[in-house]
Amino acid sequence: MQLFYTPDINPSHPQYFLSEEESKHCIRVLRLDAGSEVQLIDGKGGLYNASIKDAHPKRVILQINSVVTEFNKRNHYLHIAIAPTKNIERIEWFLEKATEIGIDEISLIICQRSERKDAKVERLNKIITSAIKQSLKAYHPILNEAMAYDKFIAKPFEGQKYIAHCEDGDKTNLKVDALSNGRYLVLIGPEGDFSPGEIDSALQNGFKAITLGESRLRTETAALEACFEANFLNR
Amino acid sequence: MQLFYTPDINPSHPQYFLSEEESKHCIRVLRLDAGSEVQLIDGKGGLYNASIKDAHPKRVILQINSVVTEFNKRNHYLHIAIAPTKNIERIEWFLEKATEIGIDEISLIICQRSERKDAKVERLNKIITSAIKQSLKAYHPILNEAMAYDKFIAKPFEGQKYIAHCEDGDKTNLKVDALSNGRYLVLIGPEGDFSPGEIDSALQNGFKAITLGESRLRTETAALEACFEANFLNR
């Protein structure tokens, strides 16, 4: 069934008006007409079943027939902070895959060895939005603007904080350390890894060092591995 | 350190000659010279430490200094059979990621609902090769030519056989069913999933139906999820 992302929907209102762009898509491209059933997700857990009341090509009126709140609510909170890769496509597919598998929040961190110093959040957010539609997720992961590493790790976080790095040293792993149904923040470094200084300051800020296995993983693969582990351990 | 993939290396021979193309890359591009140390992987578990004896731009002679056999030998065997996606790039990144995370064999299966009926194995194999070099894997995953689904599932396989599909019905999952350090074959269907008939014939051929979680996953994400799970459960 056709799905629309409608973050501005009012749950208490029996009708919803599609934007001009989506109305055109709905009527001219999908060729839906009055009576056709569609689904809406608000990105905050709401999944709506609706039907087309007025198939106006510029202003489709939808009749809300039923709503499910907290649809497929997640049983843990996963926040991954990742250094944008030199090739931004690698972050793009991480966002698509992480959204499919399950993630709550993503932060972009600029590290000492980051080759890329910024990233267009708007474009990346569109990738997340199309992924929640594709995988029928009623919750829209939060994507935060890029921030300097030192500033980011000093921010408070209610939950378990981890840093995944490739340097030697004592490390735990999510399988043994992560509390089930918990809240986790995982730091993933740039292509050249975190600097020893960055690792020290993370540890001083209450982060635990973790390993994601023996394989040498690319930045985006390491982030997806962490995402997979957190979800799998809470299944 | 610079790494070369040398599947034709003879372990009992103290020297190795780089191909003209690799010699040129080694001397003209990387600008390595006599005495420079390099590493070689043979794709069969051998990791060699070597040094340049003769920096000839068309025929570099390497002196083998030491060899490690069964380097990072895997403790289980994972064979994933996947229907090539309409957009071949999605299979390409699955191959790259699965190689980084750990996989032994990949088969391409053509299913009833496959939109793509073939795939260029040679090109896909190059992606696997660059991934083993990037992630320092001494074993080169096997990639098999595309084969019709019915023919594939009738082939013998020593180990546990699974089919991941989205239809209703009794399903187990790898966490409860997969024996540790075992041999697993997992079938992943095309964008439109396996047909009910295909699922039935798999079950009749000794495959067990599994779920990869509650999320609605794309073909390549489902395959990567299975890859993650098999590796994680054997860590």
TL;DR of this structure?
2 copies of one chain form a homodimer. Chain A is an alpha/beta fold and 235 residues long.
List keywords for this structure.
homodimer, 235 residues, alpha/beta, Ribosomal Protein L25, Chain P, 5-stranded mixed β-sheet, 7 helices, 11 strands
Topology:
The structure is a homodimer of 235-residue chains.
Chain A: E1 3-5, E2 15-17, H1 20-29, E3 37-41, E4 47-54, E5 61-68, E6 77-82, H2 88-101, E7 105-110, H3 121-134, E8 142-148, H4 149-154, E9 160-164, H5 174-177, E10 183-188, H6 196-204, E11 208-210, H7 219-233
Parallel strand pairs in A: 1-3, 6-7, 6-10, 7-8, 9-10, 9-11
Antiparallel strand pairs in A: 2-5, 3-4, 4-5
Helix pairs in contact in A: 2-3, 2-7
Give a structural overview.
2 copies of one chain form a homodimer. By secondary structure, chain A is an alpha/beta fold. Chain A has 2 domains: 2-68, Beta Barrel (Ribosomal Protein L25, Chain P); 77-233, SPOUT methyltransferase, trefoil knot domain (Alpha/beta knot, 3-Layer(aba) Sandwich), CATH 3.40.1280. Chain A has helices at residues 20-29, 88-101, 121-134, 149-154, 174-177, 196-204, 219-233; strands at 3-5, 15-17, 37-41, 47-54, 61-68, 77-82, 105-110, 142-148, 160-164, 183-188, 208-210. In chain A, strands 8-7-6-10-9-11 form a 6-stranded parallel sheet, with helices on both faces. A 5-stranded mixed sheet of chain A has the order 1-3-4-5-2, with no helix packed on it. In chain A, helix 2 (88-101) links the parallel strand 6 (77-82) and strand 7 (105-110). In chain A, helix 2 runs parallel beside helix 3 and helix 2 (88-101) packs parallel to helix 7. The longest helix of chain A is centred in the last third of the chain and has 15 residues, at 219-233. The mean pLDDT of chain A is 96. The interface between A and B is medium-sized, with 25 and 25 residues.
